[in-house]
Amino acid sequence: MELRTLRYFVAVAEELHFGRAAVRLHISQPPLSRAVKQLEADVGAVLLVRSPAGVTLTAAGAVLLEEARAVLGRAVLAQQRVAAAAGPRAITVGVLGEGGDGGGAGLSRLAAVFRRRHPGVEVRVREADLADPTCGLHAGRVDVALTRGPFQETGLSVQTLRTDPVGVLLRADDPLARSARLRLADLAQRRWFRFPPGTDPLWQAYWGGGHHREGPVVRAVVECRQAVLWNGTVGMTLLDHPPSPGLAVVPLSDMPPSPLVAAWGAGNTDVLVRSFVRVAAGVHGGG
Question: Are 193 and 216 in contact (CB under 8 A)?
Fold first, then answer.
């Protein structure tokens, strides 16, 4: 039995509802249900009885709840004692632009879960501009990055957390802004915002829709928006990013979704880095 599975079980047993437990754990409901079913298979007993009214504990479930709370309590105490013996710990996290996930809402959830797991760890967050999708990993400025692909992965380990659809960012008075959906061919003759020379070619190609583009050079999300607002430039953005006043986002039907990823050095075995990736995967539904 893994500690994570025990945490999942305790949350369901205390909430007596899979939906509420999933919200409490910051994960989606399907992996929670699978984990509890696997736990029942591991212990060889039915732990929870599901019904339209909710969830009730069996006698075996009540025993496991008591034992699981004790095990998790001891695990937390052990973690705290080891951390105290090891001295102050810190981890530097690189994030892309606005947290890479839509204004930082995902970062807030991730921070809450990570804090509970590592209460004595100092987390330093370094925001990278759009010219470096690895957020300083190659330069050694961060330990782990929460960013977006694709980019060259040589020397890195990368885990996809989720994928998000993209659209084209237009000025609200642009004739194309009234479209329900667009294709890249509809934008072939337009000027696009682009990233500086030397930017990772895979990253540059994706956000240019697979083509070399002409237009203003940008390094930050706010510069992308201003290039569109002031100059009528176009470019891609996440479909669920709310546009600023005066701007509009139209879905692109022929672009693959953008992957939100966690990335770290391939040889980095730091337990904090691995824990961060596990937490990020749980928060974003990638594990």
Answer: yes
